[in-house]
Amino acid sequence: MEFDDNAGLDTSEVQDNRGGGALGGIPGGGRTVGGGVVGLLVVIASVVFGVNPGVFSSDSSSSSSSGTGTGAGATGSGDLAANCRTGADANTKDECRVVAVVDSVQEFWKDTEEAGGKSYTQAPTLLFTGSVNTGCGNATSDVGPFYCSADDKVYLDLGFFDELTSKFGAKGGPFAEAYVIAHEYGHHIQDLSGTISRGSGEGQNSGSVKLELQADCYAGVWAHHATTTPDPKSGKPLITELTQADINLGLDAAAAVGDDRIQQKYQGKVTPDTWTHGSAAQRQQWFSTGYRSGKAASCDTFGQ
Q1: Separation of alpha carbons 46 and 42, rounded Å
Q2: Are 45 and 168 in contact (CB under 8 A)?
Q3: N or C: lower Cβ tally within 10 Å for the chain?
Q4: How far from 223 is each of 35, 168, 247, CA to CA, in Å?
Q5: Pairwise CA distance, residues 149 & 192, whole Å
Q6: Contact 154, 128 (CB under 8 A)
Q7: Per residue in 86-113, pLDDT tens?
Q8: pLDDT (tens digit per residue) in 217-265
Q9: pTM, to two decimals
Q10: What is the Cβ-side half-sphere exposure of residue 249, based on CA atoms within 13 angstroms?
Q11: Residues 6 or more apart from 211 whose CB is under 8 A from it?
């Protein structure tokens, strides 16, 4: 995945709260796998790429920080506006790439929603380290990336991208990271449409699984249009190249966080009646559905 070196980045939709200090923890995390928590990694696995993680605990004694690093090429906290100015910065710096992806994803959905006669409300991404206070309560990095509909924000600890490879076994790479971000903005689209209220329960056919698979599909829809979505400043595409190898890395990441893969790895067995996000095959299938069609209408997971 490559960005236009000369494209301008809009950092106004990415807030940098790294280094802000611990604000509380989630003892036990949001959702659990197999009816109970089997170690910290299962807590992470059970809620990764989550939405509306419920009411988090404010018990700071249980706070746990993971993935506090930002990876190679990172700039200092609070320096986004100064350091992330162009596509060239996005090609070389981790958080600048996040800015560029957020810019592209939001511009695509804004154009799409408004073309359909709907309004689009911007949803900023907030970068944090360790723990953060949200409209849904206090959260730690253990819950993975998530979208909170109470304050219309995406929350992301950049250390998760290291965990995606080290703990979940994904190959990683820039587009794998972009897939994660686009998935969270899929939840924002669900929030705007009211679909987000249908995401509840556990099991293969639960509303939770259908909601997550639809967000995967919406990520694929954005990917289909990524190289034609214009930078609002220049009118030229911000993303200039997205190869099949990039898409394959996105599919690899989707499979790595499938409920069955995670349960098999950390429980030694697969229990479909406790799924909340869908299997590896399902997550790949729905991302591919969105990517092939390029149409949000193809993402009717609730009608399947």
Answers
A1: 6
A2: yes
A3: C
A4: 35, 22, 8
A5: 9
A6: no
A7: 999 999 999 999 999 999 999 999 999 9
A8: 999 999 999 999 988 778 889 999 999 999 999 999 999 999 999 999 9
A9: 0.85
A10: 18
A11: 51, 187, 190, 195, 196, 198, 199, 301
